[in-house]
From TrEMBL:
Descriptive protein name: Thiol:disulfide interchange protein DsbA
UniProt keyword terms in alphabetical order: Disulfide bond, Redox-active center, Signal
Domain of life: Bacteria
CDD domains assigned: DsbA_DsbA
Organism of provenance: Streptomyces spinosisporus
Position of the signal peptide: 1-20
Amino acid sequence: MKRPLRLLALTAVLTCLLGAAPGDPKEGEQYVRLKHPVSGVDARQVVEVFWYDCPDSYAFEKPLEDWAARQHPAVKVVRIPAAWPDQPDQLAYARLFYTLDRLGLAEREALAVFRAVRDRHQSLTTEKKVLAWAAGQGLDVDAVRGAYRSRAVTDAVKAAPALRERYQVVEEPTVVVGGRFRTSPFLAGSDAATVSALDHLYRTARSS
């Protein structure tokens, strides 16, 4: 019995040395390497590209939040609204995101926006509708109006399509780790598999 045990031990050691376990997500399957790495970002930066009117983004929001909260320290996910310059609704929801972000409310109100848009089928694509929603949420309507109309938010919305392109994202939701690796429910196959790929990429980011 000693020889098989020694072989098992040797296999375990080699697996650790190689840095990959048999069950780990695999490059080219659950995640891919960006052709052009994003420069100037931390190796453990976690970016999510999403759209408030996307059912898959809505479904992935809670699993992503839960994963981020479980890390030590908790991960601050960088949110980027999915925006194409010829898609007015996406640009309108990008304005809503940047409005909330400017007020420090984007993370707190994320699920509330998703519920309004996806569950109650509210269109939050105009200032009037956004302000009505904000009033219903008990937010400072004047502050929301000011941010919505601000030059900073307008500039952020204009820059959103280029920011998405910088991370080479063509679908939402998508997660990019360290500006180098990309995964998504479409690529990984499910929200759970995406979180598994994200966790693997995050844990190995420093050494990859």
